[in-house]
TrEMBL record:
Gene3D superfamilies: YefM-like domain (3.40.1620.10). It holds the Pfam family PhdYeFM_antitox. Belongs to the phD/YefM antitoxin family. It comes from the Bacteria. Antitoxin component of a type II toxin-antitoxin (TA) system. It comes from Yinghuangia soli. This is Antitoxin.
Length: 81
């Protein structure tokens, strides 16, 4: 199973984002992640609509692998039940 790479993010100050909102939303719809900054600090993000689900799936799979590595006996008992 292959995973799509996560998009490379870039940053835009909120003051610049306001007049460019439609453009930034189009970028997100195309797969980009845009972090909005205030005083150089990230405060929000415009992301592709499916990115949170994809990221969540990746995290769940990683946690499941960690659990399986740490508790093989428990998983074996669950398989036999």
């Amino acid at each position: 199973m292959t995973h799509e790479p996560l998009p490379t993010p870039h940053e835009v100050p909120v003051s610049e984002a306001r007049p460019r909102l439609a453009e930034l939303v189009d970028e997100a719809a195309g797969g980009s992640v845009v972090y909005l900054t205030k005083h150089g600090r990230r405060v929000a993000a415009i992301v592709p609509a499916d990115l949170p689900e994809k990221a969540g799936d990746v995290q769940v799979r990683a946690l499941a692998r960690q659990f399986a590595e740490r508790h093989p006996a428990l998983l074996e008992r669950l398989r036999d039940a």
